[in-house]
Amino acid sequence: MKPKRTLKPAVVLSALLLTASASAESKDFPALESKYFAALDSWVEGGGRIEELRERVVKTCGKLVLVIASPKERILFLTVERDKYDFRVDVCTKMTVNRVHKQPEFKKGGIGSMLCEKSNVLLFKKLCKSSGLR
After folding, report:
1. Is 115 among the domain residues?
2. Residue 22: which domain range?
3. For 18, which of 25, 69, 72, 96 is 20 to 30 Å away at the CA?
4. Does residue 57 fall inside a structural domain?
5. Long-range pairs for 24-30 at CB < 8 Å and ≥24 separation?
6. Nearest 5°: phi and psi at 6?
7. What is the total count of domains within the chain?
């Protein structure tokens, strides 16, 4: 039997506050999105130091996922769909790393074409464009 998942009140409150303020802050989201893409570009331009991966890329990708997500997705990512959130962070990280350290799954016909050509996830489309995969 699977253990019952309980939601931490702080996580639920954070998700609700983030969503409630989304309409008021939505004008700031493009600026945050640009800031986070610039941070990823900076890591790439600096040579893509693996020692800085977690601090500079993974954390930035986590923020980028939330900024680009819809208000509904934000709540779900921070509560019951953590696996989808983690997947998007992983894809963002992998695409960013691929810009400096080529990853085999992004060779022609691999997962890159699936993410860039067949996915409807806005984040993936933007990452494909910024990473030069499409």
Report:
1. yes
2. 9-131
3. 96
4. yes
5. 29/67
6. -115, 145
7. 1
